[in-house]
Amino acid sequence: xxxxxxxxxxWQTPPTPIDEQYDSPRSPIVRISxxxxxxxxxxxxxxxxxxxxxxxxxxxxxxELNPKTWEPARAQGYGKMTVCSLDPEAAADPxxxxxxxxxxxxxxxxxxxxxxxxxxxxxxxxxxxxxLWVLELVTAQARKLTESCLNGTYGxxxxxxxxxxxxxxxxxxxxxxxxPAAPEIPIGPQxxxxxxxxxxxxxxxxxxxxxxDADLFAYYLTxxxxxxxxxxxxxxLTDPCLIDEATPSPDGQWILLETLSRPFSYQVPLWRFPxxxxxxxxxxxxxxxxxxxxxxxxxxxxxxxxxPGRRWVNWRGDRPATLFWVExxxxxxxxxxxxxxxxxxxxxxxxxxxxxxxxxLWKLEMRLYRLRWGRENLAIGxxxxxxxxxxxxxxxxxxxxxxxPQLLHQRDFQDAYQDPGxxxxxxxxxxxxxxxxxxxxxxxxxxxxxxxxxxxxxxxxRWNLATDTKERLWQAExxxxxxxxxxxxPEANQFITARQSSTEPNNFYRHDRRHQTLxxxxxxxxxxxxxxxxxxxxxxxLRADGLTLSATLYLPPGYDPSQGPLPTLLWVYPExxxxxxxxxxxxxxxxxxxxxxxxxxLFLLTQGYxxxxxxxxxxxxxxxxxxNDTYGEQLLSSAHAAVDFLVERGIxxxxxxxxxxxxxxxxxxxxxxxxxxxxxxxxxxxGAYNRTLTPFGFQGEQRTYWEALETYTAMSPFxxxxxIKTPLLLIHGGAxxxxxxxxxxxxxxxxxxxxxxxxxxxxxxxxxGHDYRSRQAVGHVLWEMVSWLDRYLKG
Length: 795
Hints:
Elements: E1 29-32, E2 38-42, H1 50-54, E3 58-60, E4 63-66, E5 71-72, E6 81-85, E7 97-99, E8 108-113, E9 119-126, E10 129-136, E11 141-144, E12 158-162, E13 166-171, H2 211-221, E14 222-228, E15 234-236, E16 241-248, E17 254-260, E18 275-281, E19 286-293, E20 310-315, E21 322-328, E22 342-348, E23 359-364, E24 367-375, E25 378-385, E26 390-396, E27 406-412, E28 422-423, E29 425-427, E30 433-435, E31 443-448, E32 451-452, E33 455-456, E34 459-464, E35 469-475, E36 480-487, E37 494-501, E38 507-512, E39 517-520, E40 535-542, E41 548-555, E42 566-571, E43 575-577, H3 580-583, E44 610-613, E45 618-620, H4 631-648, E46 652-662, H5 664-675, E47 681-685, H6 709-715, E48 728-733, H7 743-755, E49 760-765, H8 775-794
Parallel strand pairs: 42-44, 42-46, 43-45, 46-47, 47-48, 48-49
Antiparallel strand pairs: 1-2, 2-6, 3-4, 4-5, 6-7, 8-9, 9-10, 10-11, 12-13, 13-14, 14-15, 14-16, 16-17, 17-18, 18-19, 20-21, 21-22, 22-23, 24-25, 25-26, 26-27, 28-31, 29-30, 31-34, 32-33, 34-35, 36-37, 37-38, 38-39, 40-41, 41-44
Helix pairs in contact: 4-5
């Protein structure tokens, strides 16, 4: 590398035709109303200008805030919004599509359907803040309910009470003073003490670092809870406080108010700060405290570790006003051996002046994963344990102490072939999501992904819980990848799907099983017809140990094998498994529609490259073995199998193969270049390369550095940087806030390879985070990748 290589560059644009493609319009987002009468088409935003990315922000307690607008930094909203009818007869009528009139350059965020689906609440970002608007679906008319006074810094600022009572909103207190000024000179040193108790913690970013940070955090998260009527009336319900969330009960008679408080922490993000959950009446008067959790700075690296005390406090969706919560029975520590890990409790209205005695609903042997409420005497609970990858579904009777659990299903949650699907929910009697029951009252519905050895074909099943029998009602067929999005009636005779194929973009259709009709609801077109001629195949091949691997192979339009092998890029990302059966499964849909956008590697097809996307790199640990203890051997075996497959079929030239990846994939790239001679260039974006900087766990690794020193060392490409002689392009966002992938990771690897005489280029994108968002940065990254591969694979 010469001195001129380190000179500052202006933003570069990628070559033709990428320069006209990477920020092309995309199909709108579709949202369906709870009453199944309307759907919205929401225009997706373009890549923002770099000015949005580098605008001043505050990094406080794990958040990135825009102090000007009181919302998350770099927030982008939807653009144009169109209201469309779901009536199959009206769907074809252009008049059934009405564009909502909004201010120019509207930034639509925080969408919330009203419980009955007649209204949509949303926010607009203005120059000085966030305002609340409401859309009436019947008329497609939107009106402004508040000025730009919402506090959107954390979570959704508003939740519906009911269509009659309006919404609960977090608002900036009236006459809020100016933000606290930083001291002109330091008031003293920063000192932190620890009394000796073990307090492990995975690496976090954007934490509080000074007393001034703590004051700013308290200032910007302080809100007043306000009831806002659909006529614009505003009724304050609380004094200013640090509101986390305010959730009305399904019947609209009570409020679950969750707040944060001091002492804050410099070690953990805000979700570990002191947290209180209490019940209020509609006048804002406290009716009792449900949970009061102290500061918790002990964050174990194990995935099954949780915070001690009552967590997940929320309302049951099937009852007027019943609260439930989860409480760890093992102090939140998965290392402690106990017969039960979690317990679920519930209490019901009326509340105050003291809360009712909690009723035990369910004791779990694993951690609570999900609860689906059905009716008074039926719910379905899911428990899971990461270390064993086990998942169980249970039928529960909430009217019985202990729930009278009955096991419905058990599997390895990575075993896609045995996945029964997701339980279908619909708005219940109070507008909250509850299980959809068939007319027999004993059957529910499952929407499945449909992965199998034959391919991926989503399905719809009816599941009789009393007899444990399933009936296949519908399944996608070639040449489509099609999945159910909404069921319209209890018999599931009518439902809406999203359908795509290798040549057709994703569009929505209304199915009528009884009359065997199919009605298109949207007509989105191919945004990038240049890619209609590409070849896309899900390919399968074997690893040396006999494990089946797979990948998605992309070839440029018009490619003929007689033309000879192509320069080829492998884009990689490994995954840990506990089961050989799960590790060898193919879960990529052959019939998917693939069009690039943003920083997608598929743009390289325009430059004549073949791309092997996401080749399987299973890191398998069976029979008590830890997957990462043989990470290196399995990584090389998987990568070499992919290269051999491409070379043997004449697709890739063995002397013109590169490897790239993002985040954990970038870490993988550096390891491959250090231990393999099969690649001629590497691209590593936003990676971590020195595992001593993530000593309390990373990715799927749950052991600490001191418990698995040899594994951490062997897996860190930084420790073998002297072996990285293959040219490596390092790209990193200058403001990467992802835990573990600090920008210093790329900086230090660059310095190591440079000092050891390797070939390396280091690109820092000002203001960009873990993923790259601005038009300038994304265009420049594409230019860097094309230039790098052209130099080393075509030069």
